[in-house]
UniProtKB/TrEMBL annotation:
SUPFAM superfamilies: Enolase C-terminal domain-like, Enolase N-terminal domain-like. Pfam families: MR_MLE_C, MR_MLE_N. Keywords: Magnesium, Metal-binding. The keyword Metal-binding applies. GO terms for molecular function: magnesium ion binding; racemase and epimerase activity. This is Mandelate racemase. It comes from Okeania hirsuta. It comes from the Bacteria. Its cofactor is Mg(2+).
């Protein structure tokens, strides 16, 4: 008997942040995330779970209302499809709705969860095998004065992190002071990525990066566009990570061909799910690009998918993985990855390895079945 999708339920959960978050020089402010969680039920009773959660509504061209509207277009055409045929599921979604990758991510991840449960294997096995016990997590902290950011770094260190990502981006002299203060606080075994979240113009990025003598420091997404980042690449020496401007495989291909970056931040929600993220991962392996493998935002549901893909990637190609789960006051699922001293350990149970807490999810906001 062929396994088929027979029902898709959509849930909406608000995830308040423990502490409001400012990035990109303070121009982007987030105090909560609106997460859309998807449950896909198959003809033999398997339920797969996925999550799409933009980091607020001004970080990327993505918002929760768009996910709900997109689901109304996608869910009906997937009823009756085989969720194990992941390439076909993505093909159907791309034929039905052009672009809007962030809408498709939760469906794709839910189908991977079904595949894992069907095969009785954890996702990391299906994504390439386990290359390490854990994935290193990033202790990120938001904009502030140099003193405030040093205090945040110390707090993240006390929580167990040893890789840090301070969010900066503002006036040139202030950003230089922030970076210098943070770097003066670093201990020998610690690593840092300076993340401007595309806040700088090219001339600002060039001045700031060239003022930092330690050329082992990564700078992440210094400017808005690929072209602006290419200008910065040509006039600086630090390794660059591209993040927010990499949406499609074509973006990645252009960046690699032009030599813009030495590493890529693959956010599963932004690129459309685990299927497309794995394609990007494999291209990076083949072309020598290192990676952060992360989720855009969201709960332990989305975060666990990123941990699975991260540990299924060879160590020498990995930088670290973000840890949005620990920013929130609401945890809508049991299980998932385990936090241990600044690392994430994936579950060994089949599929994604999470169990949603239905009392937190509440009633679905939409239900799609065969008409």
């Amino acid at each position: 008997m062929t396994i088929k999708i027979c029902e898709i339920n959509i849930y909406e959960v608000e995830l308040p942040l423990i502490k409001p978050y400012r990035i990109s020089g303070g121009r982007l402010f987030v105090d909560k995330m609106d997460s859309i969680i998807v449950a896909i039920t198959t003809s033999d009773g398997i339920v797969g779970w996925g999550e799409s959660c933009p980091f607020g509504q001004s970080y990327l061209p993505a918002f929760a209302g768009g996910i709900k509207a997109g689901m109304a277009q996608l869910a009906p055409i997937l009823i009756g499809a085989n969720p194990l045929e992941l390439e076909n599921i993505n093909h159907l979604m791309d034929l039905t709705l052009k672009g809007h990758l962030y809408v498709k991510s939760a469906i794709d991840v839910a189908c991977w969860d079904i595949l894992g449960k069907y095969a009785n294997l954890p996702l990391y096995t299906l994504l390439g095998g386990r290359f390490s016990e854990h994935a290193d997590l990033i202790g990120a902290f938001a904009n502030g004065t140099p003193e405030e950011m040093v205090a945040d770094l110390k707090q993240r260190r006390d929580q167990g992190y040893h890789i840090f990502s301070p969010k900066i981006g503002g006036e040139v002299s202030l950003d230089i002071a922030r970076i210098q203060a943070i770097m003066a606080e670093l201990q020998p075994q610690e690593k840092i990525t300076i993340d401007a979240n595309r806040a700088w113009l090219p001339d600002h990025a060039i001045q700031i990066m060239n003022s930092i003598n330690d050329k082992t420091v990564y700078f992440e997404q210094p400017c808005e566009t690929l072209e602006e980042c290419l200008t910065v690449r040509r006039l600086t020496q630090h390794p660059i990570i591209l993040d927010e401007c990499i949406h499609t495989f074509q973006d990645l291909l252009w960046a690699q061909r032009e030599g813009v970056a030495q590493a890529i931040n693959i956010k599963i929600g932004r690129v459309g799910g685990l299927t497309k993220a794995r394609q990007m991962r494999d291209f990076c392996l083949a072309t020598g690009l290192r990676m952060n493998i992360e989720e855009t935002g969201g709960s332990v549901i989305g975060g666990t998918g990123a941990i699975h893909l991260a540990v299924a990637t060879p160590l020498r190609y990995r930088l670290a993985t973000s840890d949005s789960t620990r920013l929130h006051t609401v945890i809508p699922a049991k299980g998932g990855y385990t936090y241990k001293k600044g690392t994430g350990i994936p579950p060994e149970t089949p599929g994604l390895g999470i169990e949603p807490i239905m009392e937190i999810l509440g009633e679905p906001i939409a239900v799609y079945t065969k008409s």
